[in-house]
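Per-residue structure
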Amino acid sequence: MIKESRAIEILRKALFFSEADQTEMVLIAEERNLTRFAESIIHQNMARVDHTLMCRALSGNSAGVSATNDLSEKATRKLVDDARKVAKQMPPDPDFPGLVKSPRARRYPGYVRKTAEFSARDRARVVEKVVKIAQRENLACSGAFDIRTTVTAVCNSLGTEQYFDETTAQLTLTVSDKDGRSGWSQGFSRDVEQIEVEDIVRTAVRKVMSLRTPETLPARPYTVILEEAAVASLLLFLAFLGFGGKTLVQGRSFMSRKIGERITGENITIVEDPFNPAVRHIPFDYEGVPKRKVILIENGVARGGVYNRYYAKKAGVESTGHALPPNNPYGPYPKAMVMSPGEATMEEMIASTERGILITHFWYMNFLNPMRTMVTASTRDGTLLIENGKIKAPLEDMRIAQSILEAFANCEMMTRKRKLCPQYGAMMYIPAMKIKDFNFSEVGS
């Protein structure tokens, strides 16, 4: 892992080489150690160490971006010169705000040494434990145990200097029987010792209801209970569809012209909160701007979105510290969302359901109608029928066609306990949900 002094030294040297009007440097260094297993056997151990150095050079109001994974002096000189040359060829953008000197971001621990030092042998012992528990139920295992250490540093020619190091551990598991029925679960934490291995396995095993043939339900609305991973997919797509400053400024957000209006049920509050103790997300963005806690939806009312400096200027607000890397086309979006919990347990939500469907997670979610927050996806690895307050039988997987906002408006219960769910680089700390009138469009995936 690159320590803070070395990371800042690399970026300062790059800034020294630059002849642009203003220069911004971003360093992302990652160590990844991964164990994959299938049919209850480890089939891959891999380790990867990589660095990405990015430069954004400004010539007046024009910006050029270049990137490399070579940290040598020769490559760094070429990197900053390439960015400067690109900037010279770009048309001026009068909306570009230039760079800014930012204060040091809040400091808190994201790095856990035990996680960073968790070896291949340690991961193999965890997989062995997983396999033994599943084999007691005559189930086969597949999945991955992924350990990462990441360093992010940002410096610019105006004096901004930021550094953050973090670790993550993620165990993902699918268990299956000889007839192809499967159950899925995962655990995620910065501290590998907080991964609850036995709970993950037993959760996945409960989804595989052996000795039962899956039933089929007609496609129509049903009451559903969404486990945390399924809620996370809906929340992440909601963020893509409208919590970012780019979609808000361009009028493509479902919240455009609806700030201050009720858009979900009163029990829904969603906050972008990188400082939450369960999350501890990187405290600054890729422009070096310190992140802010942002209320997105409060008691069902739309409150606002997140911004980088470019779209903050267009909107006439201040950046909330949510710029993505300089070579991205997407604009800002939240990556550390926290949803307020309810008062129920999963068992209480199931017991309160006369007839419904329990959904473990979704597969291949995609947009149908962005302004209506309509998405489609298939259920997967544990779709179960609930009757008279009890799990009755497995179901054939079904495809949804559902508005996320309407689903959140129809949320009847949420769990008191929340889980940290990672998806596509975002972290979400969220409860499970019980939702009425959730729409299914067809049977099968």
User: Anything to note?
Assistant: The mean pLDDT is 95. The longest helix spans residues 73-89. The two ends are 42 Å apart (CA to CA).
